[in-house]
Design goal:
This protein has 660 residues and is of the alpha/beta class. Among the domains are: 2-160, no CATH class; 175-192 and 202-338, Rossmann fold, CATH 3.40.50.12780; 564-657, GMP Synthetase, Chain A, domain 3 (2-Layer Sandwich), CATH 3.30.300. 32% of the residues lie in helices and 23% in strands. It is built from 19 helices and 31 strands. The strands form 9 sheets. A 5-stranded mixed β-sheet has the order 16-17-18-19-20, covered by helices on one side. Strands 21, 22, 24, 25 and 26 form a 5-stranded antiparallel β-sheet that branches. Helix 1 (5-18) crosses helix 4 (125-141) and helix 7 (204-220) crosses helix 10. The longest helix has 19 residues, at 61-79. The protein is elongated. Mean pLDDT is 89; it is low at 88-100.
Length: 660
Amino acid sequence: MIFSCLQMAWGIVLMKYHDPDHLQLHIDTTFKMPMWTCNNTVVPRDNVIVLDIPVCMEDTLKEWMNKLRISLASYAEASGVAISFAPNFTNSSASGQETASDRELEVIMDADRQLNSHLHSEISADRFIGHLKKVYEALIYDEQTSIKDINILLREEQLQLLYTFNQTRCDYPKDHTIHGLFTRQAAANPEQIAVVCNQESLSYAELERKSTQLAVKLQSRGVGSGSIVAITADRTVEMVIGLLAILKSGAAYLPIDLRAPEALTRMILTDSGTLLAVSKSLSHNIGVELVNPYDPLSYDNEMDEGAQLLSEGCASDLAYVIYTSGTTGTPKGVMVHHQGVINFCCWLGAKYRMAKIPRILQSANLTFDASVESIFGPLLNGGTLYLIRSELLLHKGAFRNFIDKHQVQIVPLVPSLLSLIADDNKLESVQVVITGGDILEWELKDRILKRGYKLYNHYGPTEVTVDALSSEVEEDRVTLGKPIANTRIYVLTRWLQLCPVGVWGEICIAGDGLALGYLNRKDLTQEKFIANPHEPGQLMYRTGDIGRWLEDGRVEYGGRIDDQLKINGILVHPETIRKHLMTYPAIIEACVMGVNFEGKTKLFAYYTAEGSVATTQLREHLLLYISPAILPSKFIEVAQFPVNLNGKLNKHALVEMAGV
């Protein structure tokens, strides 16, 4: 058996695609071509011996070839099968006939399609061949290069990933502040209704006047540039007044959730250095001075004096701090500047034509950065925000009556609340439904689309000012979409190299929406906001999310890097298994996660189903897609999935449900 350079290149391409710990080399004892697989792909064939070949991406090509020779020599000695290595130089004939190398490329491509296409189904045949040739050239001419450093991308592919997919440059008033743009809207549309809550409403002129009066009061209490002022998430007209007043005073706002434990609130207030809060609900012994936005005395001042006190500030000023625990469980304050919010709101207004469809629902908790979308999105684009009481979000009928009564046109809802509109006749006033903040399930997506709604999926961590990617959801698949204005997306290897289209990597984000970092956490800021290797002089944020580019420039979500597990020696992406589980007809929602069970990490699959579903049926279904070695240990049916205060899946509660 002759082992060619192209066959070696095939194995290395699989390493570059999947970063495995081992490859499987399938040797046909009838002397046919050896074949490569990874992730323990099962190949049930006679006369095939499978060798497990360890992978070290730090090895040079020469080191890896030597290790491969040693492994094959041991096998040859034990089996009596002679194996030799031959370089595979390509020579095109003068007549233009197909060369042996061309034929071998086709054979390898066909074999990979049969054995590994389920692992990289989004990689086109042309790209695969191009990557093979690039590795082949490195094997011939550059064997001292480490495997991790081989660049398998063609020049046009690099340009596509860096520039074509990231053509997002767009003009906007980047030198303005949030409150400065609002003041301009108020001057242009003074009688336009800005905010509605219950039976109360305020015009732009009234909101401008009241927020300025409260800002003067805040400044009289020592608030100014560099201050952080807390505000409770009451979802009232006074909350909106308070937000604008804090910004006008030169400070940044810090939302506080009254449902959170008092110990957490105290920790956040202390960590942020907050000395004053705009609230009537916080305890007077919480440790900060309180200004009650519902008290008429808070607005009792002379406007002329206020005009002298107030200054607009600049776009680089801190606008808000939102504390998020992320995946660590330890709250950290994300600092977002005015420019990031202005860029996002200008994109939002243009994307959803807010000048023509201005009525938008405000349902997100203020401590969730989606609230920026539904508060400042309309206010900076001349629209009207409709504040809905929390209890109305718990009752479908009441919610639908609210939308009908106010003729709301744009409805942002987290996925856990989409059921409010999923099963009844379409609400006629609603022209756009926006979701984000958690995984949008396929089945739920279908229910929304069947009602006739235009559904958009948004993606973005708090660290990039609300959203970085957006997609109009279609019937074929759910994706994160394409980058929004002045945003660049990179899908990178763990060595920060560009992943080819169709290859999973870490989603990294750069652009004008990038946050200033974490408050009082210089170490964590430097860890997550790093120098952008593909844009010198700029920073990018490492999200910790897994994604891949699709051919049309959309990004598909693949789970969290933190969620990756080693099960029976195999690297497992729980999100991939969840997606396969969701293809079973009776499954409505599903979650697959690693759980510490009896001292070992086990995969548990949680699901809701329509009707009775046997565990054996789910196991058999998953075996159509994955190896038996990574089947979930337990399948647990739940009545409904628990969510946290922001409407996201509460995985800690799921662990408790399992009785672990």
